[in-house]
Amino acid sequence: QVQLVESGGGLVQAGGSLRLSCAASGRTFSTYTMGWFRQAPGKEREFVSAIVWSGRNTVYADSVKGRFTISRDNSKNTVYLQMNSLKPEDTAVYYCAADSNPRVYHPTGFGSWGQGTQVTVSS
């Protein structure tokens, strides 16, 4: 498994931007598919975005498509989530996740998780 630590969350006004980072430990980071998920109060954890090991393929939830961008720097063992045009409904704890071969882009498909970082978007 890989250890993951998220950072970059905070409070931002609607329409603003934040960039989340997820630093991973372990020499095999470059072989993992990395994902971002989020969980709002009272709701289930949901998929936001994922990026394969090479960075060539990315996937987004419809709710964030066109506003969020996932990227990775394998030389730094870090994956990023650039969030633009933020909305109050984006408020949630954002989690970074990793898996060598996720079966699905769903929380059950990922084996390693960070502790989460809070993102709050005010209206």
Overview of the structural elements:
With 123 residues, the chain is mainly β. Strands 2, 4, 5, 6, 9, 10 and 11 form a 7-stranded mixed beta sheet that branches. Strands 1-3-8-7 form a 4-stranded antiparallel beta sheet, with no helix packed on it. The protein has no helices and 11 strands. The mean pLDDT is 95.
Task: Give a short overview.
With 123 residues, the chain is mostly beta strands. It is 0% helix and 48% strand. The model has no long low-confidence stretch (mean pLDDT 95).
Major sheet characteristics: 7 strands, mixed
Determine the number of helices (DSSP H or I, runs of at least 4 residues): 0
Subunit arrangement of the protein: single chain
Tell me the fraction of residues in β-strands, as a range: over 45%
Poorly predicted segments:
none
Which outline best applies? globular
Helical coverage, percent range: under 10%
User: Which structural category do the helix and sheet elements fall into?
Assistant: mainly beta
Overall mean pLDDT:
95
Per-chain topology:
Blueprint: E1 4-7, E2 10-13, E3 18-24, E4 33-39, E5 46-51, E6 58-60, E7 68-73, E8 78-83, E9 92-99, E10 112-113, E11 117-122
Parallel strand pairs: 2-11
Antiparallel strand pairs: 1-3, 3-8, 4-5, 4-9, 5-6, 7-8, 9-10, 9-11
Highlighted features:
0% helix; 123 residues; seven-stranded mixed beta sheet; 48% strand; mainly beta; four-stranded antiparallel beta sheet
